[in-house]
Protein: MICOS complex subunit MIC13
Amino acid sequence: MATKLLPVVKLATKVGIAGGAVYVAYDSGLLGGSEQGSEALQKARAAVPPAIEEWMKYFGLQTQLPTIPNVEFSPVQAWNSGVRWTISRLSEAPTKASEMTTQGFQFVKDLLK
Structure:
């Protein structure tokens, strides 16, 4: 009986952990818009180093953490440039396909000569 219950407990644990992770991500704003994601990134930058230092003290580690590099990254700008790049490539796709088809036919003609 206990061996049949073990897979159910494992599955319930995995589902609970995954659900908790999704809830935390949603609650912190990571699943929202780009503005919310940017705010969540700033909160994480402020919260992670003190938490790591506290855990290091708790476990008795005396290591100096490297400073976090100041990276100017805007998720909003990165998203917008990615969307622009994708739309640009999609708009060029018919022309490129036509050019490649013509080149392919010319290659086959040259082979058959």
Notes: Residues 75-112 form the longest helix (38 residues). The chain is about 80% helix and 0% strand. Helices lie at 2-28, 34-59, 75-112. The chain has a mean pLDDT of 81.
